[in-house]
Each structure stands twice: as structure tokens, then as C-alpha cells.
Amino acid sequence: GTEERLATGDAVNVAARLEQAAEPGEILLGEETCRLVRDAAECEPAEPVQAKGKAEPLRAYRLRSVSAETPARRHEAPMVGRERQRALLEGAFAAVAAERSCHLFTILGAAGVGKSRLVNEFIRSLPETTVVRGRCLSYGEGISYWPVTEVVKQLAPADTETAGLAPILGDESAASSPQEIAWSFRKLLESRAAERPLVVVFDDVHWGEPAFLDLVEHVADLSRGAPILLLCMARAELLDQRPAWGGGKLNATNVLLEPLPQDEAGELIEALADGIAPAQRERILEAAGGNPLFVEEMVAMSAEEGGEIAVPPTIQALLAARLDQLDPAERGVLERGAVEGLVFHRGAVAALAPEEPQVEGRLVTLVRKDLVRPEEPVFADDDAYRFRHLLIRDTAYDALPKAVRAELHERFAGWLQEHGAELVELDEIVGYHLEQAHRYRVELGPLDETAVAIGEEAGQHLARSADRAHHRGDAQAALLLLARAIDLLPETNPERRAAQARYAQLLADVGRYDEAERARADAEAAALEARDEALVARLTLAALEAEVQSKPAETISDALAAAEAAHEELERLGDEYGAIWALRLIGNFQGWLGNSRQSEQTLKSTLERANRLDARLGDEIRIWLLWEAWSGPISVDEGLQRCEEYLEGARRSGSTIVEATALNIGALLKAYRGDFEAARTDIATGRAQLFDLGGPIWSAGPAMIEGEIELTSGDARRAYDVLAEGHRLLGDTTMTGYLSTVVGLQAEAALELGREDAALELSDETERLAQKDDFEPHARVRLVRALVEARRGALAKAEDLLREAAALIEPTDYLYLHVRLNLVRAELAGLARNPEAEQEALEKALAAAEEKGCLVAAGQIRERLAQF
Question: Which of 128, 133, 163, 129 has the alpha carbon at shortest distance from 146?
Fold first, then answer.
């Protein structure tokens, strides 16, 4: 590390002291070296050696002799053992094929224990079966769907099958979410499995991102009627991430591959090397510990050394010892391949080793030595290779000095940008390699302009990849990528401030409101210091959206005023995305304050701008326009027409969220017309789709809708159960805005069941949850309390509550609440024996029901009016 290129460090110091202490012709070993070679060499203790910088003398050992030779290695042996595990695997597949079901089969085990060998032997025995493979990358932060993309490409889906998968196939203009991707992937697997049984092999699952692991469990949990075997290989560390992986599923099996028993390990040694000496066999058995890879590598090294074998106690030391035996040129090629990863390309090696004229020949030699194996290339007109085991890759990589690693990572990133334009995850992978180049330069220090520039470029790539992850709805991957980008980008770079703002917004999107608030404060401080007015305005919008959902003490009116001010500022600054975001929020707030007509105008006028800029923004606006079809003054028929239009568009574009919302709102409108059979069919389909997508908001939304459907149908028991489930789903979150509406409807259902005390308790909870001017839940529970008081004889108190509810409802255009208000008014008038007031209230309720097109309510009201 010095200008004179001197080797320094503790190992060099110890070696120098041992050399100085050794007599002529004598070899002294340090304690660690003696331990590593103890089964290959005979040593005896020597006098301790004093060493500068060491508090205690060094223990030294005198080398006396080394071991005898062994026969050459033979070709790969048949698989030994694993009969029970293979029987379980074959039994699971037989059940999948016979019952046309899905099964999740996970093989767990340490590196080198034989997971891949077991899977390959099983696959070779399968009759007429489609087999596809995907692998998780070791540097997979943010590369959530790499294994899924590999599988999808192997299945060669038709254009009609890829709408929901477009974001992971390189279509950056497509809008999707992790739930939509999982749903579309499941449907693709089911389609292929309908033709013949399908085996989907996922390797290195312990490196899988949360979105990928969720996807695998989604397929296992929900796939029906198609023979699919999900065959996963993972180290036991997977259970650290997912302790319940496979647990609680009747269609899941976890198998742990333990090291081979002593007799089977001995059988493997005999299969690999004819006539191996008993003593050497015992040394290998002792060091290998039953790990087949340990056994194979040790026998291979013994053959290459002409019978001599050093037996390191760890596989890392073993593989390092084997790589040390390679020709320097071969080793250089292997090390440069290791920079790319477990799988590497000939072209990348050639770019990283321009001084080596025989890259292809060296790779052929490495294949022959069984260190690497041919692999399907990612890049056209290139050859790919896979390290026989990841530990070989790690050992080759770890042998590179940090300065060399930094240079090679940077050069590989440049090569990849030239040759990997078609890669969906190009920014993630280039960003990773530039990030590594930057990190090593930081460790070597001091930080110069080159290191800063590399870090900045890495951060830019990672920030772009985070945008794509967010666009497809993978918020967790986007958060990880943004955190890395923020760490790499210089404070003076405006992209860092933008990344900080997006990070804060995403934290709120996933319900981590406290963290989001702190992140927003950091981003705002940076934006104010840089005088970035547009970013400050966007951060205001993010704060408003989070506060309305999570802070009952705040008000929607204040949020609306703040959003309007932010919108004016963003329009002035020419920030189109921010302006559309502000308008969407303004429309939401207007509707939640009871002015659906104004909300609809705002959202409709913004929709075209959103469609031109970003498909996901357009889908967000369409979702809220569908909700306005329930609450707003537009008729049921007009609302159903909108639902059908958006439903057709969503099916063409692959937007599952819009499709499900259109089905759910349409179901409610059909219920208002009395078509309960169609309503229940549609809500079941829509809820199933949203359940597949996951998330508390999308689970609570259909609870509101289905609860209203069942209240309309007169089935209060079913309504209560549905709403109680929605209450439970949101109860563990801090999203109070949606929860207050669900609990208010639950109070109404409890009252319909005659459970007055429960209705009052739920009303109290609604009041605590709802913001002061979130009129709908406050109005609903006042009507519930008014009926309870009236039925208990407290008519004066009931009338007071009714007036409070009327003051909230009458200024709004929520027609279904006007119907409800006047029905309660009529009941109170009837209890007060005032038939004129009762008839007047019923006539007002009928007018509101007819204006909305609520045929069920209108028919019931006419029957009551006919009695006068």
C-alpha cells in the first residue's frame, strides 16, 4: 500500500518474524497455518517467537513431513443418498399432477449440501413436464423481479398475457403494482399448467426481495385447478427472513438437507476417486463434515496435486487453496468473471481482461476443471458461464485487492451500459457495480473527485431504478433503492433532494407515518437551503395526504386550503406532475367535505393532463371518479355506465386496481337497483382481485361497499360481519380516515340487528377516529344515536341529534345520505305521533332516492307512503 509497493500488514509481519527465527533449511509455521494444514503435514512445537507489535510471543511449529499422494480424480459420481427427500419431492409432484393443484416445495440447506443436485436429478426423471427456472441475485436489493422475469421469458407469453407484467418486461410506460404483477404471473402459470404439469424452479430464494417472496406465496396460496410445483432452493437463512415460510399451508413442504452420514460421504469419495488411501479418505471425511461439495472439492484438489492434499477446516480456505493451483491467466479470467457475479459473460471478462488474448480458451479450461459451467446467456451473441458454486465465486472475488475491485466494478458498469440496453433492471445492476466501485474507493481513501463522481453516477442510476420500482407499485424495493441513492448522491445534487422527497412519500404510502414525517423534515430542510420551491410545494402535498389519513386532530378544510395554495405555486413553477398531484388531492378533499359535484369537475378536468403525463396518475384519478359514482349526485344508471367504461379500459391496459374498483362500485349501484345476485357476484370478484393485490386500504374499501350492499338488501347480519372484518384489517394500522367510515357503517349494522349498546360504542369509536370536518362518519353516527335515543323514549335528545346530522348532511350532495337522513326523520316523527311530519320526511326521502336512482329504497318508501 505504499509508493514503494511494499506489502504490509499483520500477516506479513508474522511471516517475517517466523522467517528470521527459522534456522537454515528449517520451515516454521504460525499457529493458524499449522491448524489449516494439520491433516496434510506433520509439525512439532518450536520455541515461541518474539514479534514487534505483539503483546505475547508467537506460537511456532516446525514442519517435519507432508502426506502421501492419492489417485487422480474421476468424473462426477452419481448422487449418493437423499432417497427420503427425493421420495417426498416425487410424491408432491405426483399429487400436483393427479389433483391439478399447486404445491410449494422448498429445499433448505447449507451451501454445497446438494440442493441443486437433488433438483436436477428429480427434473431429469419427469415425464412430459414444462420446467422453467429463475434465480435470485446476491445483490438483489431493488431487483425484486429478476427471477420472475426469467421465468416469464421462458414461458414466452402472448401479448394478451403480459399486460400486468409489462413493467418487469421493460415497458416503463406501463402502470402496475406488486399485487397486479403477482396476479398476472399466477394467471400465466395457470394458463401454461393447463396444457401439462408445470415445475417452476427458483434458486437462491434466501436472497429474494420481500416483493418476490410475497409473489411466490401468493401463487402457492391462491392458485387453483392447475398442476404447478413451485420448487424453491434456499439456505436456511430464508427462515430468518420468513419464519413462517410454508407454515400453515396444507400445500407446502419444507425439506432440510442435512450433511451426508459418514457412510454415504465415504461412498461418495469412493465414487469420485478409485482406490483412495484409507488414511486420506478419513481426513476428507473428517474435514468435509458430510458436505458433498466439501468432499468433491477436496478429492478434486487431491487429484490435481498428484495425490497431495491440504485439508482446510473451512470451504472458503479449501476453495482458495484450489484456486491458488490455477495458472495465473486462468485465475485472472475467473476473478474477472467473479466481478459480474455468479453468472458471467465471456464478453464482460474480455472487457475486464484486455491483456488476455485467450479468454475463450481459458474459460474452456475452467469448464473442464469443473470450476464453471456453461449457462444460458442474457446477452445475444455472447456466451455465459455459471460458477459451479457461489462459494467458488466468492473465493475468487475475495482474492482481488480492493483497488482492483473498484476499477473492475467501474469498468464492468461501463461495459454493461454498452451491451445491456435491453435489460429491464439495467439501472439497478449498473448502479450496484458503480456503488461497489465507490465504496472500495472510500475504504481506501482519501475520497477524491473520481470517487465522488462515481458515487454520484451510482446514485443517479439507483434513483432511476427506484422510480421504476415505484411505478410498478413495489414500494419496498423503491425505498431500499432510494436510501442507497440518497447515501451516494452529494448534498449539492438536486437529484438527492428529489430522492429524499420521494423517500418520505413512499414511507407514508406504506403506513410508516412517523418515519415519513422525519424524512420529510430532512427533505424540506435540504429544499429550503437550496431554495427549491417546487420541491417544497410537493413536500407540502405529501404531508397533507398523510395527515388526512392518520391525524384526526387535523381538518380536511385546512388540508384543502393548503393543497390549493400548493397547486397555485406548482402551476406557477411549471411543475406538471406536482400540479396534477395537487389537483387530485383537491378533488379528494372536495368530495370528502361533501361537494361531490365540485370534486367530479376537478378530477375530470385533470384526467386528460394525467393521462398525457403518467398512466399511474391517470389510474389514480379514475379510481376516485368511480368512488364519486357512489357518493355523488350522478344517477345510478350514469354511474354504471362509467363503471363499464372504466372496466373495459382497465382490462385492456391491465390495471387490476381500476378493474376491481369498477366491479365493486358497479356492484353497489346494481344493489341500489335491486339486482342483488349480480351485485354479490361482482363484489366477490372485485374483492378477490383486491385481496390478491393486498394492502389495508384496498381491503377496507370493499368492506365499506359490501357492507352498504348488504344493508340495502336487508341482511344486517351479513353486513355487520363484513364491516367487522374491515374494522379488524384497519385496526392494526394508523390509517384513521378509512377506518372511521368502516366503523360508522358497522354501528349502523349493529343498530339494524337491535344491538343498541354495541351501536353506541361503535359510534363513540367513530367520533374518536374521524377528523372534525369529515362529515360523513359524524353524520352517520348521529343518525344511529338519534334512533337509539328515540327508541328508548328520549325523543327530545333524539331530535337534537337529528338536527346535528341534518346540519352536516343537507349542505352536501351525498344523495344516499339525504335518503338516510329523511328516513330517520320519518321514524322519529312516527314515534312522536306526527303523521304529517312523517309523510313529509318520506316524500323528501323518495325524491332523493329517485334522483339517485335507488330503486330499492324508492320502492320501500312508496309502500310506506301508500299507508297514509
Answer: 133
